[in-house]
Amino acid sequence: MDEELLELQRQFEFAQQVKSSVRLSDRNVVELVQKLQELRVIDFDLLHTVTGKEYITQEQLKNEIASEISKLGRVSVIDLADTIGVDLYHVEKQAQDVVLSDPGLMLVQGEIISQTYWDSIAEEINERLQECSQISVAELAGQLQVGSELVQSVLEPRLGTLVKARLEGGQLYTPAYVARVTAMVRGASRGIFVPSNLSALWTPLQQLVQEMNGASGVAVENSFFQSIFNRLLKEEEMLGSLRAGTHWTPTVFAVAQKECVDSFFSQNSYIPYETMQKLGISQAVQFLQSRYPDGKPLAAVFIHSSMIEMLDSTTEDAIEQDSWIDSLSVLPASFTSQDANKILLLCPSVQSALKAEKALILGESYVISSGFIKGIYDQIEKEAEAFSIQASTASLIDHSSKSSESAESIPANTDKGSKKKKGKSASMKTATVETVPDDEEDAARPKSKRNQKKGRDASSQKLDSKAGGKKELVKAQEANNIIPPDEWVMKKIVDSVPEFEDDGMENPDSILKHLADLMRPMLINSLKERRKKIFTENADRMKRLIDDLQKKLDESFLNMQLYEKALELFEDDQSTSVVLHRHLLRTTAATIADTLLHDLDILNKLKNGIEVGESKAQDPVLLDSSERTTLAKSLNGSLSKKALALVETLEGKRVDAFMTTFRDLAEESGLVLKKLDKKLERTLLHAYRKDLTSQVSTESDPVALLAKVVSLLYIKTHNKALQAPGRAIAAAISHLKDKLDESAFKTLSEYHTATVTLLALLSASTGEEDDCSADRILTKRELLESQMPVLRSLVLGDSQSQQS
């Protein structure tokens, strides 16, 4: 058998040495291999090398990778591809299989590292530690070109074996170095006798260690010191308590702290929280409640029950004697007003007095008996009533001054004031031939009386509803005028109890201020009840006043509208129109305006609780300009503004402006003004004509007769009620020229000329005995008297004129 084997070996060696007569090319070999794979002769995968001239099996690739790892310990996958000459994809795939099959290998960032490599690295680190005592893990990771977490995970299982060191906070320390730092931490901690933050202690230790290690030393983290401190505390090498991980309180301090609290509390029966904070106790209430269960916590102090008993006896005496006490004057200075209030509520005598309404607590610290308060209040209440009456009267004056300031925005009429007065005085002196004296103007006013009763009940109801709508606002405004201010109340309290003056009226915490705050609402309620009683008493009178005013305006305003219509006839004659407007404003308009202002003033006084004497209903109201302005300013708010506007229009030149402001004021007052319709106009004209006819029939004054005849002629010719002054008679007669026949117009013109001549003579007469004008005046008057029947016949007819 051996000979046959040797023979085969010789033949194989011979076959290898014999040169082939036929050589295969690379392409033939590749095709041959592919054919063998197709025939399943080669039933395993073959990998090409990067040169393409060699084949390698996957198993051989694994073996070569494992060989390189065992030889180098740490090899890059990219380097393996270059060394073996196989594509990187196949190398990475087989490398992963190699790492998975061997637990001693790891694939990190494209590198395969074995445990033997880490063992050698650990031995090198241990040698370095013996030289420098500490090494940073980050520094090692940088040198090894791996992550710090990987280095730390590799070193932890080798600490104490291959690496004789302690890993703390990313640093490796030798046992000797740790022992030295432990001694430093122990010494520094034992030198602390007050509560301290350990973070502040580690800073100087870091500086000390840095100086000890020199320039090459690595800074020590606070966590290293903290871990050493925690170990020492656990081993009871230091006594104390650690709170929140960093706040250290030595036992010696805690003992001294409790002794100080016990000493202060036992001597004073209280202890302020501020004192507890100075002793370093932050949660003072919890500390004291756990130590003294019988104590009571207040706002700023903690007290013993004996403090309550002491204050209770003092306050009980003050309540029984109908007096008062300031608890802060009895308690120590460290007590606040909140503390005083809380301790007072704990006193049995105060609790029973409050329940029985025998005492009050004011300003948190003052205890005042109800009898003491009642004695002062009874005195002040009487003086407050007198103050209210005086203030109610003065309020109208104060309101008048305020209204005058707000009324400055109302445009002034250019034809009022001194200019009007100056013009009037000048006209009286010159007395031109066409002027009839103003004394005769009143003769042109109608003397008829008409009753317009329709709609009075409805207007009264509307006035009441509008007045009621503003009731609350008016009350609020009036209350501010009659209620005594705080200063007044405090002054009266001082007058009753002079000892309160020492506290000062400006001190907001004084008993004087608190008593004033208590009594002022009581006074307000008392004064309101009194005013309510006054308003009830005046209610009937106010209602009667409103009804009477409505009746007066119903008739007067209709007449005013009637007279206003006659002014339309003279719109083309500007000068005459101005005279007629002014005359109507000074006569009829002034009368109804005075009536309205006068009654509104009385109504305002009644609302403010001011006594007003009863006046006769038939008494006429005659006011001058200043009196009207005063009454207008005494009214309230918008009513005052509209009243001032009304007064302004009385001094103006236009009746329509007066009518507008009069309507506004009446509407603001809640009054209803009737509008002149055709039916009412006919009724009023008929009555006015009848009244004028009666006056013309009985008139004996030749001068006054002319104005009445002209007015009656206007009713007959124009159906208008004309109110003309003496100086406008000439213009009024000229407007009748087209309406009268020549003889009637001539009679009227000649009578007017004679009247003007008579008035001129009367104006120029001196009244002395040697005055020669007396005969001329007598002659002219006789002439006019002889012409009076002829003048009457123009409006009455011949028969009636002769009878007159």
Automatic annotation (TrEMBL):
Residues 547-676 form the E3 UFM1-protein ligase 1-like domain. InterPro entries: Ufl1, Ufl1-like_C, Ufl1_dom, Ufl1_N. Keywords: Coiled coil, Transferase, Ubl conjugation pathway. Residues 681-794 form the E3 UFM1-protein ligase-like C-terminal domain. One of its GO terms (molecular function) is transferase activity. Residues 454-475 have a biased composition (Basic and acidic residues). Residues 398-479 are annotated as: Disordered. It holds the Pfam family E3_UFM1_ligase. Residues 4-288 form the E3 UFM1-protein ligase 1-like N-terminal domain. The keyword Transcription does not apply. Residues 532-566 form a coiled coil. It comes from the Eukaryota. Belongs to the UFL1 family. This is E3 UFM1-protein ligase 1 homolog.
